[in-house]
Design goal:
alpha/beta, Leucine Aminopeptidase, subunit E, domain 1, Aminopeptidase, 2 domains, nine-stranded mixed β-sheet, 18 strands, elongated
């Protein structure tokens, strides 16, 4: 666990055990407040020569730790490289995130109780100092996350807890507070997603949603199978049918006091475990399917953030929570179901289940709340990893203004997105001979990610809508050190930014 606070003392005036110092490739500090001349004059002569002797030149990804006496205390100077800092602002902001994360990892590994980092000028990254302070605070929480709930030696090895101070004369504590709220929420969602399916069932996650609603006084509705059948939610019920764990359909409502405010609906896929159903996944593809509820975890924690930051718009969080299991009650290939809006769907593949539960979710949101904008977030297709790897969430929408807003916010928050095309040429991929549409997508069309979005578009009538496919970004992302193994909390930073800065 980490706590982050603002200090208005100069960097070197802070009495801490660790000093995180981002350095450019010429060994110049990113913040003048953390100049190396202080160390050379008072504690460690010829410091730059020492760094170069150890092949530390401030390049991206480099780090070097030096222990030294500072008064009566032994402290660690943690140097992290950020390179030349001559790229686009959002690329260099990401470089800074990863450099500071490296420093936090060293602080944590060495069990330092506190550390300080000097805040660079926000103008270097085309943002205010407050915004940069918020981004670094969020990063600190993400970098400190660890999932060890089931480690038997947990009591033998004490958990680390420390404080990071962000040194700035111009940033405000309110920015740090917002970062603490968002960062903590991200780690909560990561914990839920990292829990195995025998511990994180539809009932358990619905209970967590209830806690969030009770905490903030939100109205919450939790439907079971019976109520879903009464609402003709054929997609939800078809997936839920095969499991002994009853599915839950969760709706959380935040209402602003601002008159005539628009409504945003956030819809998160919550398949607590995905075996593939009757179309059972191969062994190589079934491990890690506990993460198939990452979209739902994101939406629930975003609602928790909203309860604390109180935006001036209405926000509805909707999460269908099910297990996709094979059994005598499970849906079969060739079954035809009717979704909430009356459209019939031929189930060609029971492993294309996320779009079935989201179809009814989108219908429900429009029918009961008439949102101006709907965003759905889902680990929907493995195909998105082939298109964008693990580093970009796929965005699909016919609303270019909405797509551009999401892309810009992704660059700012580090929750990076990339727009994929979505036009009528893909409609033929889901044309069924026996129903209105089918759920699999013709192999002749390829583009599985876009075809999945095309399917979902059949259940949106009037709202501005975008689909976010996080199958590549939700877990086990390589090379980004502040997310590491397991769940990443993908989409949470992006959704919070969208809600708090709703572009209209």
């Amino acid at each position: 666990m980490i706590s982050v606070q603002l200090t208005q003392q100069h960097f070197w005036q802070n009495s801490v055990e660790g000093y995180i110092i981002p350095l450019k490739s010429n060994l110049e500090p990113l913040s003048a407040d953390a100049a190396l001349t202080h160390i050379e004059e008072k504690h460690y002569p010829h410091l730059k020569e020492v760094l170069k002797k150890h092949q530390f030149e401030g390049d991206k990804g480099q780090s070097f730790t030096l222990s030294a006496k500072q008064g009566d205390a032994l402290v660690q100077y943690i140097f992290v490289g950020v390179g030349s800092m001559q790229g686009a602002w959002h690329q260099e902001l990401e470089t800074l995130r990863r450099a500071v994360a490296t420093g936090i990892h060293i602080v944590k590994k060495n069990y330092l109780k506190d550390a300080v980092v000097a805040l660079p000028a926000g103008s270097l990254f085309d943002m205010s100092d407050d915004e940069l302070a918020k981004q670094i605070t969020i990063l600190a929480h993400m970098a400190s996350y660890e999932f060890s709930s089931f480690k038997s030696d947990k009591k033998k090895k004490p958990s680390w807890a420390g404080t990071l101070s962000i040194a700035s004369k111009v940033a405000t504590s309110g920015a740090i507070d917002q970062g603490n709220i968002i960062g903590s929420a991200i780690n909560q969602a990561r914990h839920w997603a990292d829990l195995p399916a025998n511990h994180m069932t539809p009932t358990v996650l619905a209970g967590e949603a209830q806690k969030v609603a009770s905490k903030h006084g939100f109205k919450i509705t939790i439907l079971g199978r019976k109520e879903a059948l009464e609402l003709n939610m054929g997609g939800f019920c078809a997936v839920d049918a095969g499991s002994d764990q009853e599915g839950k359909f969760v709706v959380i409502e935040y209402k602003t006091t601002t008159p005539n405010a628009p409504t945003i609906a956030l819809c998160g896929k919550g398949v607590m475990f995905d075996t593939g159903g009757i179309n059972l996944k191969p062994t190589s593809g079934i491990s890690g399917m506990k993460f198939d509820m990452s979209g739902a975890a994101a939406v629930i924690t975003v609602m928790d953030v909203i309860g604390q930051l109180k935006p001036t718009i209405n926000v509805i969080g909707l999460t269908p929570l099910v297990e996709n299991m094979p059994s005598g009650k499970a849906s079969r290939p060739d079954d035809v179901i009717t979704c909430m809006n009356g459209k019939t769907v031929e189930i060609q593949n029971t492993d294309a289940e996320g779009r079935l539960i989201l179809s009814d979710t989108l219908c429900y949101a429009e029918k009961f709340f008439k949102p101006a904008v709907m965003l759905d977030i889902a680990t929907l297709t493995g195909a998105v990893q082939h298109a964008l790897g693990h580093f970009y969430t796929g965005v699909m929408t016919k609303d270019d203004a909405l797509a551009q807003a999401l892309l810009a916010m992704g660059r700012k928050t580090g929750d990076r997105t990339w727009q994929l095309p979505m036009d009528d040429d893909f409609k033929g991929a889901i044309r069924s001979e026996v129903a209105d549409i089918h759920n699999n997508g013709s192999s002749a069309y390829y583009a599985g990610t876009i075809v999945g979005a095309t399917f979902l578009s059949n259940f949106v009538e009037s709202a501005r809508w975008a689909h976010l496919d996080i199958a590549g970004t939700a877990h086990d992302v390589p090379a980004i050190n502040y997310v590491g193994k397991g769940s990443t909390g993908a989409g949470i930073r992006l959704l919070v930014e969208f809600v708090m800065n709703f572009p209209g």
